[in-house]
Amino acid sequence: MVRVKIPVKLRERSRYIAFIVDSSQPEVILSRKMIEKVFWWKILENIGEIEAGKTGLRLIKWDENKKIGIIKCNAKYKYLVSGVLSLIQHLGKIKVNVIPLLTSGTIKSLERKIESKGVRGLYDVSNSDRL
Q1: Which helix (H) or strand (E) holds 122?
Q2: What are the backbone dihedrals phi and psi of residue 100, each rounded to the nearest 5 degrees, phi first?
Q3: CATH of the domain at 43
Q4: pLDDT, tens digit, for every residue of 68-97?
């Protein structure tokens, strides 16, 4: 089978969304596998299989200690994906809030924004009385 490389101008653009998981049990470590499973389940539940496939959703980075992650999705679906992520209320038996923080076109600029503002500047994790 011959693979044809799609020209840059014809490729779908992607966006990277930084998010934080604010849980009612901060001492519990949330695994990457659990995060991916719940994200896909929620996307499938809300928009269906065909649209979920078009989103191109992938978990790029996940820090279990800080509970911060970066997901990649199609640029056309970035608002839909960030909206569906904010609907997540449980990871297993743990009550959580998933808060999309920033969106960017490259991982490098997204990480730079997070480092410059700091997580506390983007979202105050200590104020978890909403749970």
Answers
A1: helix 119-122
A2: -70, 130
A3: 3.30.70.3250
A4: 999 999 999 999 999 999 999 988 888 999
Cα–Cα distance for residue pair 31/122, rounded to 1 Å: 23
Query: What are 49-74's pLDDT values in tens digits?
Result: 999 999 999 999 998 888 899 999 99
What residue numbers bound the domain in which 43 lies? 12-116
**Distance in angstroms (rounded) separating the CA atoms of residues 100 and 85:** 7
56 belongs to a structural domain: yes
Q: Quick one: angle between helices 32-55 and 78-85, nearest 10?
A: 140
Question: SS3 for 41?
Answer: helix
Inside any domain, residue 38: yes
Whether 125 is in a domain gets the answer no
